[in-house]
Specification:
Oligomer: heterodimer
Shape of chain A: globular
Largest sheet of chain A: 2 strands, antiparallel
Distance between the termini of chain A: 51 Å
Largest interface: A-B, 33 and 36 residues
Shape of chain B: globular
Number of strands of chain B: 15
Number of helices of chain A: 13
CATH architecture of one domain in chain A: Alpha Horseshoe
Structural class of chain B: alpha+beta
Radius of gyration of chain B: 25 Å
Structural class of chain A: mainly alpha
Order of helices and strands of chain A: HHHHHHHHHHHHEEH
Strand content of chain A: 5-15%
Helix content of chain B: 25-40%
Strand order of the largest sheet of chain A: 1-2
Largest sheet of chain B: 5 strands, mixed
Helix content of chain A: 55-70%
Distance between the termini of chain B: 84 Å
Number of helices of chain B: 16
Number of strands of chain A: 2
Strand order of the largest sheet of chain B: 7-8-9-14-15
Radius of gyration of chain A: 17 Å
CATH class of one domain in chain A: Mainly Alpha
Chain lengths: 221, 392
């Protein structure tokens, strides 16, 4: 199996074929992990999805891969796990036992006083952590609820991806205390990509905030 | 009085000082000026003012950039970020002046202008830049045919001696193999997915000028399997007039005692030669490596980080090293597959072999045990007495 074949299967949403291929040989899992660095954004996200599906099936132990990805998020690893946060969250969402220790670290990237500071932070990793919060909002509300206040602060962030992802995550959390800050984004026309339901959606930050408000209001009715 | 009295003392020693170099750059680069201040403060406080690491990188790559932040950005704002960029060096570090000028100009434009040639991995190391400069540097390098090296849990930039380019002892083309492996393992080099780092180093002969046996997870050391090529007339020439004291300086220093000298004839019991290269190094005109050349593959060296230092030990005593190197790559695939599945987080392959036993490792990667695999007497035994157990 090579990188290109697996990328093509992911782009074509042939997840079962991709999963069969990955499971054929242990080394193929390494190729899948390598796709978390793909230059093509959709391939990175679909690799995240596939890891979740493999976790859900439960026949391949992904715990070692989770430990490895967590290390890639550590500041002393000399490595950068671009999509490690999303992948760990997706694995946890589908099979909590495989990432129970790691998930809290991933989520708390968002309120780590050192790593979330603009001078020190890595924006893609922070965005990945925020996405992880949103992705787990439905299945693990208790786990992510304490992150709400930190995300509200991020709605004022200079980076549109951080603002947009935070709005999206707060909407999924139905975090009522965010209403005012979300309303303040109604004129924010910066465009971002949000990965949801297997697809990349191009939206303005204002639209992400509007959708979030709709979710919150719907829930409070 | 100088602002940096303590580090000024480093210039007074007998060797060229890096302080002098930094001061020279400080005249035109604010980062270097602040670097001197930060360093002086470290000497004064007797502790480093660099924080450990940092998460930075360029899109599409998981390694190649080492994040570095200072803990005193208020005092020295120009070194609040001071990231390192590793550039994949050409095989055997052959550059032309144009290439060196380009790299230095790029670094003066985007960074501190300070370099480290070469890092222990072999890369061309550029010291000190800021996060916002990383993508422009990477784009510029790529447009000029350069690439980043490895860092973290990936295949590190392969490196080699200058082999056949300059050395008559080279038993295989180290530069070609280095180039080939660098291209073959691009994915593993740039997209970390291993338990920990994996280094290839290639030496053309057992002199091992790149110290691969101490510095690489996989050492590929040139060797031969026939007899040392011997020119008796040239031996006699060395002996003539006492140019070389063959009895003491050659035969007397042979580690396996496989040579003898009767005053006119040098005899070598080649079966007992362990390829130490001493005799060949002393009399290069008279003795040469054999004609049936290839390489031995050793595995497991590392510096002390998580556990203590290890030297590589023999895995394959002899393998022909010729393009496209399929036999070697197939072996590496099996080794990685096993390490990938069974290696613990941050466990180098040498540490894993120590943990599980070389016998088990050899069996798992599909090799037949041979005596050359024994690292030292009474250690890593490869003989199992399963037959005896079966009989009981």
């Amino acid at each position: 199996m090579d990188r290109e074949t697996l990328s093509e299967l992911l782009l074509a949403r042939k997840y079962q074929d991709a999963m069969d291929l990955v499971k054929k040989r242990h080394g193929n899992l390494r190729i899948l992990l390598g796709l978390l660095y793909s230059e093509e954004e959709l391939v990175r996200w679909r690799a995240v999805t596939l890891l979740g599906l493999i976790a859900a099936e439960g026949r391949t132990n992904l715990a070692p891969a989770v430990r490895r990805m967590l290390w890639f998020l550590s500041e002393e690893s000399s490595t950068i796990g671009w999509c490690s946060a999303q992948a760990i969250a997706e694995i946890y969402r589908n099979n909590p036992g495989m990432a129970r220790d790691a998930i809290r670290v991933v989520l708390h990237f968002s309120d780590d006083p050192e790593l979330s500071l603009p001078a020190n932070r890595n924006t893609p990793i922070l965005a990945g952590s925020i996405w992880a919060i949103g992705a787990l909002a439905d299945s693990e509300p208790a786990l992510v609820s304490e992150m709400g206040p930190a995300l509200v602060e991020f709605l004022k962030d200079p980076d549109p991806v951080i603002r947009g992802f935070s709005a999206w995550a707060l909407g999924r959390m139905r975090f009522r205390a965010a209403e005012e800050a979300l309303n303040a984004l109604s004129g924010d026309d910066s465009v971002i990509n949000i990965y949801e339901d297997d697809s990349l959606r191009k939206v303005t930050v204002a639209r992400a905030a509007g959708d979030a408000l709709e979710n919150i209001v719907k829930n409070s009715e | 009085m100088s602002d940096t009295p303590m580090i000024d003392q480093l210039e007074t020693g007998p060797w060229p000082s890096f302080i002098k170099d930094i001061k020279r750059m400080a005249e035109k680069n604010a980062m270097c000026k602040d670097l001197l201040g930060l360093l002086e403060m470290s000497y004064k406080d007797k502790k480093t003012h660099w924080k450990h690491g940092g998460i930075v990188g360029v899109r599409g790559y998981g390694g190649g950039i080492i994040g570095r932040y200072s803990d005193s950005p208020e005092k020295f704002p120009n070194v609040s970020h001071f990231h390192t960029v590793r550039v994949n060096q050409p095989s055997a570090w052959f550059y032309n002046t144009g290439a060196l000028r380009y790299l230095c100009d790029l670094w003066e434009k985007h960074g501190s202008g300070l370099t480290n040639l070469h890092g222990s991995t072999g890369d061309f190391v550029m010291l000190g830049t800021t996060t916002d400069q990383l993508e422009p540097i990477f784009t510029d390098l790529s447009e000029h045919g350069w690439d980043l090296g490895g860092s973290g849990s990936d295949v590190r930039t392969p490196s080699c001696c200058n082999g056949m380019a300059r050395c008559e002892f080279a038993c295989y083309d180290t530069m070609n193999l280095c180039y080939d492996l660098t291209n073959e393992y691009q994915d593993e080099l740039h997209r970390p997915a291993f338990p920990y780092k994996f280094k290839f180093k290639m030496s053309g002969c057992p002199n091992d000028c790149v110290a691969s046996i101490a510095r690489s997870d996989c050492s590929i050391i040139g060797t031969w399997r026939d007899d040392i090529q011997q020119d008796d007339a040239a031996v006699a020439e060395y002996a003539k007039g006492g140019k070389v004291d063959i009895a003491n300086d050659v035969v007397g220093k042979c580690p396996t005692g496989c040579m003898s000298w009767n005053g006119s004839k040098l005899s070598i019991d080649n079966k007992n030669c362990n390829r130490c290269m001493h005799c060949i190094n002393v009399m290069p005109k008279a003795l040469r490596p054999g004609k049936d050349k290839g390489a031995m593959i050793l595995l497991g060296a590392k510096a002390p980080i998580v556990q203590g230092a290890l030297l590589s030990s023999v895995l394959v005593p002899f393998i022909k090293m010729e393009p496209p190197y399929e036999e070697f790559k197939d072996l590496i695939r099996r080794i990685w597959e096993f390490w990938d599945e069974h290696g613990e987080n941050r466990e180098r392959i040498g540490e894993m072999i120590v943990r599980i036993g070389k016998g088990n490792f050899v069996e798992e990667v599909g090799l037949e045990p041979v005596p050359a695999m024994i690292k030292e007497p009474r250690s890593n035994p490869y003989i199992f007495y399963e037959e005896y157990f079966d009989e009981e």
